[in-house]
Amino acid sequence: MTVVTGRAERAxxxxxxxxLILDHAARLLRSNGYHQTSLREIAEAVGIxxxxxxxxxxxxxxxxxxxVNDGVGFVHDAVLAALDATGKADMRRRLExxxxxxxxxxxGHSDYTCAxxxxxxxxxNPTPESVRGTRRAYDDLWRALIEELASARALTPGIAPExxxxxxxxxxxxxxxxxxxxxxxxxxxAGELTAxxxxxxxx
Length: 203
Fold this sequence. Notes:
Blueprint: H1 7-32, H2 39-46, H3 60-86, H4 91-108, H5 110-118, H6 129-151, H7 161-174, H8 186-197
Helix pairs in contact: 1-2, 1-3, 1-5, 3-4, 3-5, 3-6, 4-5, 4-8, 6-7
């Protein structure tokens, strides 16, 4: 039996319970979507009563909001870290590092990221501002990177940078439908996508 002796230990225990709820919610949302995932199913998956969920979240919408934001946040943090690690590398190397980080996080946190892609629309409810803001911040990161590439004349000529950005993000996120770790290598995929967006001969 776990004995909680202080405020810090209690906060750690409660944080672990919150993450466990989100882990199960992400898995169910990925499989079943927004409408077919209920609070009762989430509670049963965690092994608690439905009423106990309300100690951590006020509603199903709040759980979904947290899952969607975490799905984007995991990828955003990974890409930022990859770009920071490249330092002053040439633009194609920075792009390739960002693509590899996006793909690795996308598939490394697949319940969250797939749920985020699948339930970005909150059914009949308005998409929360925090979700729009989180998604917008990540879009802006890629928009800035693509603009850097455009300034360096490193992009595929004849295609507007914004369309290339949309194509690239769509291609990466679309890999949730076909990527299998035993069939594809992320570093190789990153190199191939980089070559489509920023061919070596134009760098």
